[in-house]
Amino acid sequence: MAGPKPSKPSIIRTNVYSLTLILFLCIFSYLFGLWQHGGPTSLLPATTSTTTVVDIACSTATATATAPKTIDFTAHHVAATSSEAVMKTYPLCNISYSEYTPCQDGKRSLKFSRRRLIYRERHCPAKSELLKCRVPAPYGYRNPFAWPTSRDLLTVEKAVQNWIRYEGDRFRFPGGGTMFPNGADAYIDDIGKLINLNDGSIRTAIDTGCGVASWGAYLLSRNIITMSFAPRDTHEAQVQFALERGVPALIGVLAAERLPYPSRAFDMAHCSRCLIPWNQFGGIYLIEVDRVLRPGGYWILSGPPINWKKHARGWQRTKEDLNKEQTAIENVAKSLCWEKIKEKGDIAIWRKPINHLNCKTNQKLSQNPPFCPVQDPDKAWYTQMGTCLTRLPEVSSNRETAGGELAKWPQRLNAVPPRISKGTVKGITPEIFQQNSELWKKRLSYYKAMNNQLGQSGRYRNILDMNAHLGGFAAALIDFPVWVMNVVPAEAKINTLGVIYERGLIGTYTNWCEAMSTYPRTYDLIHADSVFSLYKDRCETEDILLEMDRILRPEGGVIFRDDVDELVKVKRIIDALKWQSQIVDHEDGPLEREKLLFAVKLYWTAPAEETASESS
């Protein structure tokens, strides 16, 4: 027989006593553990939030809601050794280095052959010769005018050429420079009467021996973007003028090595009085133009020897000599299977075939030049030119465009590039390409939220993407008044520069353990995505950052994206470079190891007295 049931109040009392005992034991254990691990101060987090809006001028940093003004990773990411913890300093270089281009240095170039202008190619300093100082801007340096004013006007200290007109406190290019007596716009209109420049079929162009890049500058209004290049000259620095104008340009020369661009990159190539000996050395320079010219692309030649009957006396050359030169050029173009489609006035235009079916038949008969053996036609970093014809991809009919037909601009930007749709880029599918495009739209929105000047018209013009991959960052910026130099590092696992060009964008190969082929103070904004992870154990982080400092304009910005450990090392060095910077979280939140580092190079120049003593 069951005993009597306990009353309800007694059950409640028992439960209360049990709960009180458990609570007491929990609190005691917690406090005991806290006492063992250093007291209550260890409970305070280093930061409570990581969402920060950064003003690129770095004069203020406005935080959202409860966010702190700085994000400190030092509690968990500290220097590996005591020597790293010591702040290194980077003094100013001598004013004589204000226009220093390490891999095109005039003194070093004298050690190399002048044959075929080899001495003007890239010849970089040895590791022991690398500068460990900050290249100064000349005293009084001012950043260029905002685009499009900069296309026609220069700041005073830059305009030192006798063909530039002085107007108050600024200088003006007369009609686009010396290359086009009637102005670059009128010259381009003349070309437009011979081939269609307005239907979007021509988007990328290359200008060899570009002068001050007026041709490229005025093509921009026609939605054609031009890669202009010229050698490093000793006094005029014309590529530097082009960059100051806000026009894409690189230091470069047709000599012994391939141009640093992939095959089938450009819709149009151009030479106006560029002084390149197209008919010499077995036609090797036209053969190189053929490599980078897209199937169906155009080559435009103006100036000597075109229209020699009219200009022979003004050029101070005999008609026989000029006729011989033009005939030799015509023969080289014919041997490449190009078709001369127009010659009118001072302009002659040839067209490359859309495939090599008929050309192969002709080559079997002439064997001049022969087709290259099977090789990578996109390999173009320190790669020797050849006197053989670069093979186009195979086709099945005369009407098929080798490598695939490109969409017209602007649809070309977001259409799946033929290199991807045909499966020739390892590991990149159409789906991956499209996802990458959407990803960069998202990332750009986040960048704009962090850097409230990124969306301001005129704040930036020349932008460098140091590790461009598929060109997604540049594509996301397409509606901004900027241009982007998309770099595919020579050490990248996948060569994607051909894809970038098939999108209607431009770029180049570079090894970031060396200096870039450009002048100091070239870029307004630099984007460095996973650059330091890529070059880890390849070269010194400080050397890459000193090169970035050289090519970044005063008050220019940098967006670093990398593993947090790499960014902590980078921040330590750029603090020593006198940049202002701030680390913020990844757009997907604080749990991502990849972080962002926004930085700005402060305005400074060489001291006035140093500049004066150097010029005296």
TrEMBL record:
Does the record's keyword annotation contain Methyltransferase? Answer: yes
- Domain of life, per lineage: Eukaryota
Key words of the record? Methyltransferase, Transferase
Protein name stated in the entry: Methyltransferase
Tell me which species this is from: Citrus sinensis (Sweet orange)
Q: What is the lineage of its organism?
A: Eukaryota, Viridiplantae, Streptophyta, Embryophyta, Tracheophyta
